[in-house]
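batch_manifest entry 22 of 60
target: Calx-beta domain-containing protein
source organism: Reyranella aquatilis
requested by: lab member K.T.
priority: normal
notes from requester: please return tokens only, no post-processing; we will run our own comparison against the previous entry in this batch. if the run fails, retry once and flag.
--- input ---
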Amino acid sequence: MMYDKLNTFGTDQAVTTTAASTDIIDLGAARDMGNGEPLELVILVTETVTAAGAATVSFTLETDDNAGFSSTLVLASSGAVGKAALTAGTEVLRVKVPLDAERYLRTNYTVATGPLTAGKFTAFLAHDRQASRAYAPGFTVT
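--- output ---
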């Protein structure tokens, strides 16, 4: 899967407490994101999450008309995901970006019953995602 730096919210962002993405995307104006060619938000776990307690993380895509995100609107959310499900290589959220985005986009990581002692995430917008899986053939050649 290919993505570019300008469509990335953060690469290997370490998260221990609730935090917004290290980068935001400025669309230049309110846009119909993905109208005709939909984009998807992809959030991956790049380092397994650990915590002393039974921590959870909720992942959201947020938009606002200002870079300070003072009147944030949530476009998509994963709901609470338990630390046991947050292992390296896991794709925790993949959703089409809704058309009603305002000028700025960011991701947010909400940690509950934390803090986390480890955990990193990569979040980006992708087009033409790779979603094929290889399966065992189920036959033998003699």
